[in-house]
Amino acid sequence: MESVLVAVGVVALVGLILGVLIGFTAKKFAVASDPRIEQVAELLPGANCGGCGYAGCADLAKAIVTSGADPALCAVCSAENVAKICAVMGVEAGTKERKVAVVYCSGDRSHAKMIAQYNGLNDCRAAASLHGGGKGCRFGCIGLGSCARSCPFGAIEIRNGLAIVHPETCVGCGKCVDICPRKLIRLVPAESKGHVYCNSLLKGPQKKKYCSIPCIACRKCVKAAPEVFNPQGFLVRAVKPELVDAELVKSAGCPTGALQTVEDHLALGQAAGKEKEGAA
Amino acid sequence: MPSNEWLLITVGAVLVNNIVLSRILGICPFLGVSKKIKTALGMAGAVIFVMGIASFATAVLYHLMLSAKISIRIGSLQIQDLDLAFTKILIFIVVIAGLVQIVEILLQKFSPALYGALGIYLPLITTNCAVLGAAELNAASGRSILASTVYGICSGVGFGLALILFASIRERLELSRIPKMFQGTAIALITAGILALAFMGFSGLVK
Fold first, then answer.
1. Rounded to a whole number, what is the distance in Å from the CA of B69 to chain A's nearest CA?
2. Which of A131, A223, A264, B42 has most Cβ atoms within 10 angstroms of its Cβ?
3. CATH code of A54's domain
């Protein structure tokens, strides 16, 4: 019994000595840092996506406090938190526009024609350097999901061989934009309601050879709403995507279906995707 | 100590009795920080650092504990030659945790570059079972202080080797088509098992 008591005493003594030592070193060798850095870091989302160009949220917080980086640099941060950061820093809050990523392609497995079976690395960048994967179209989505894996927020879904961005989850950090070897992901204003989901620069008949849903540059939509759509060579882009609603899509009467509202695009291949998953 | 003894300690700790793949210690950082080679490198450095320091400190402490036979008188109670070696695990873990805290503070003050490289990993391994395991194995096999320190560093190198190998395989696995039910931790555990099997090949190295 006594030896147990002595053991307890010795361990408690060791703990006490260490505690005093830690306390002493922490006081004596403390590194003075700006308390605002911690405050700002707490207000940042902490996902460390790197969308701002700094190594992570802590790095951005340090840059905001010490070298005067723009508090609104973080695309993920809510406007409310940006205002709080500005309050901490004592600067005026600027307004910022929320953006979301869009994959300019509708060529899933039921629309795009496959010309080869790709069995290499399961990565779009690898496929792009090796004849560009299995699909015939050289401009569209390869569908191996490099963007989905790079997304720190899980906003991209690969459905039926096509990357689809869920705009309600997307925060517009731009990681997928950088990683896509086909460069067909772009950041657009979050209010966008519809797009021309095609990225191919080929002439209409050449596109139709490999895809049943391309933009063939017939310009019906341009005639219907010239202020919204802008033809660029053999491709039409919605330059004011916030004006594309279901009514306009209907009146434009896109013959291939490349012009879609965001909701229709999200529903694309839902049934086919389910089927495929069940089979696998 | 003859020179082949040193070879036995180093090769034994790094390859034959690898602390992760053969002794199955320190599995949680092994699975947790092995997704990218870059973080695996940082973790490996931190583990080598901490294991070296911890093995040295605990070896010194253990030799003190063995040599100091405490005799105390409390009132009418008389305790002769009290052997406190049975409290070694408890004391080791407290001392390692406290020591790493102190070293972390000192690193931050005197070597910000090293702190930047290892800083975020140090608190993770203060009470790691691999670090405690190295200290305990030193005590159990009665190594000298110098041999214990060498064993600690080599165990850290063995841990780092296993971690970096595993991280490399996992980076490659990211790009593979893995059946849905095996994705994530499942395939990682299978990989770890196969890696451990491969390391069993070294067991014939030392007779």
1. 12
2. B42
3. 1.10.15.40
Query: Is B79 within 8 Å of chain A by CB?
Result: yes
The token duo for B54 is 């911890």
| A203's tokens | 């002439």
Using alpha carbons, list the distances in angstroms from residue A51 to A64, A76, A95, A173, A229.
15, 8, 18, 5, 29
Q: Kindly provide the ipTM of the predicted complex, given to two decimals.
A: 0.75
Could you tell me if B128 and B16 are in contact, meaning their C-beta atoms sit under 8 angstroms apart? no
Kindly state whether residues A236 and A125 are assigned to the same domain.
yes
pLDDT tens series, chain B, 207 aa: 677 888 888 998 999 999 999 989 988 889 888 888 988 898 898 899 899 999 999 999 888 877 776 666 666 666 666 677 788 888 899 999 998 888 888 888 888 888 877 777 887 787 788 999 999 999 988 889 999 999 999 999 999 999 999 999 999 888 888 888 998 889 999 999 999 999 988 888 775
Best B105, B127, B172, B177 member to test A by mutation, with max A CBs in 10 Å, is: B105
**What is the C-alpha to C-alpha distance for residues B14 and B7, in angstroms, rounded to an integer?**
11
Q: Are residues A118 and A242 in the same domain?
A: yes
Q: Most A CBs within 10 Å: which of B90, B106, B122, as the mutation test of the A interface? A: B90
Contacts with B180 from chain A: Cβ below 8 Å: 280
Q: Calculate how close chain A gets to B149, using CA atoms only, in Å.
A: 21
Supply the pTM of this predicted model: 0.73
B91 contacts in chain A (CB < 8 Å): 10-11, 14
Residue that the structure tokens 């893995």 belong to: B178
Closest chain B residue to the Cα of A26, Cα to Cα: B105
Q: Do B106 and A25 touch (CB under 8 A)?
A: yes
| Angle (nearest 5°) at CA B165 between B16 and B171 | 160
